[in-house]
Amino acid sequence: MLSIFNSLTRQQEDFIPIEPNKIRMYVCGMTVYDYCHIGHARSLIAFDMIRRYLMHKGFDVHFVRNITDIDDKIIKRANERGITIHELTDEFINAMHEDCAKLNVLTPDSEPRATDAIAGMIELIEGLISKGLAYAVPDGDVYYRVRSFKDYGKLSNQNIDELRSGERVEVQSDKEDPLDFVLWKRAKAGEPYWESPWGQGRPGWHIECSVMSKETLGNHFDIHGGGMDLKFPHHECEIAQSEGYHEEPMANYWMHNGFININNEKMSKSLGNFFTIRDVLKYFPAEVLRFFMLNSHYRTHVNYSDDLLNQAWNGLRRLYTALNDAPKELPAFDPNHPIAVRFSEVMDDDFNTPQAIDLLFEAANLYNKHHDPKDYVVLKTLGNVLGLLEANPDHFLKSAPNQSDDDTDLIEALIAERNEARANKNWAESDRIRDELKARNVVLEDKQGKTTWRRETQ
């Protein structure tokens, strides 16, 4: 039976959906003012893997990933560039979709934008005020009255008297309590705004997800996910808003993925070790980045370095090398194959992808040794469950970022010259060409009268 670590209870629990065989899942998405970085890639890949495995198990999954398209940083960046917030956010939403496609992240079933849910936010804020959980101040701001929600702090396991306001929770003199967080912000001069009962303004960050999740999945759904950095204050505030108003649980299982460190240091623009997904894909294939991320359990912190990416690249090449030797006929996937059974066991244990990938290598080794088509199908199918091994093996083994057709044509030409030299028994020329190709990080394999090639990591 599938079991999931629940951040709310801080223990691993058997997964029981609200409705049999149906899963409603909400994951906090991007604030779209810049290109996605590799921390975003961690979350995108982790929850895509979870979604894929749930689908593999036969669940009907409704997967929602929201877009925050109104925010202080968005307004600032749009003003700097002299464009509207919609022009800015459309640009980076398109870029995010391009990055997701390269990383083989499935398109969400629903992808709500915050600016399309303003009416629902106003309605929820009015409801919170009517319940005494929120209050408006004279200047037009509206705040959530944190101490009125007795369970505040239950997700992050913090005592309300010991809590600090946290990132994005502004401490203002007109608050009743420094812990109170903003639900609606009065618009400043030159900022975009919406009309509301409290004047012209825009929503606070936390209220957005409470409304977008409700409008797409209902008051109470199965799984809420996001990065570990969102646990407090964002997810804590979501719970206070949604459960305070609806008086029922927001989500049964809360899941959080770990952080990314760069060469054992926290990723930060100030440290100069900040990488976008696009930065990484200049040097590594996108599937290598996905494979690298899945080699760590989704809840652990991942250390990123070029050396570790190169190791992942070589590991992925080993799997594709096995797949490149395809049998003539492929049988149907056998879920009772010993490796498939063990794969389900480790993935049912809170999505243990490191052990699942170990099983992919075991399947590759079995196929290389016995050439049993059943092992080939198991390798291919289980790799696909993780969103891996979907490329043409020959193309993957020959590909490299920023490669040119001229580069590939030159390699093919050199191999043709070497084959001619071998046919003429000119072994010195044959060896010279092999060495030249090796210097280009190209590995040759002569088998059954045919020469194949692949690239290797520098």
Describe what you observe in this structure.
Residues 342-397 form the Cysteinyl-tRNA synthetase class Ia DALR domain. Keywords: Aminoacyl-tRNA synthetase, ATP-binding, Cytoplasm, Ligase, Metal-binding, Nucleotide-binding, Protein biosynthesis, Zinc. Monomer. Its EC number is 6.1.1.16. GO terms for molecular function: ATP binding; cysteine-tRNA ligase activity; zinc ion binding. By secondary structure, the protein is of the alpha/beta class. The chain folds into three domains: 17-257, HUPs (Rossmann fold); 262-397, Anticodon-binding domain of a subclass of class I aminoacyl-tRNA synthetases (Four Helix Bundle (Hemerythrin (Met), subunit A), Up-down Bundle); 403-455, no CATH class. 44% of the residues lie in helices and 17% in strands. It is built from 15 helices and 15 strands. The protein has helices at 38-56, 72-81, 85-102, 118-130, 205-217, 231-246, 277-280, 286-294, 306-323, 338-348, 353-370, 373-385, 393-398, 405-423, 427-439; strands spanning 3-6, 11-14, 22-31, 60-68, 134-136, 142-144, 181-186, 201-203, 221-227, 251-257, 260-262, 265-266, 302-304, 442-447, 450-455. The strands form five sheets. It has a four-stranded parallel β-sheet with strand order 4-3-9-10, with helices on both faces. Strands 5-6-7-8 form a four-stranded antiparallel β-sheet. Helix 4 packs across helix 5, helix 10 runs antiparallel to helix 11 (353-370) and helix 11 packs antiparallel against helix 12 (373-385). The chain is elongated and about 90 Å long.
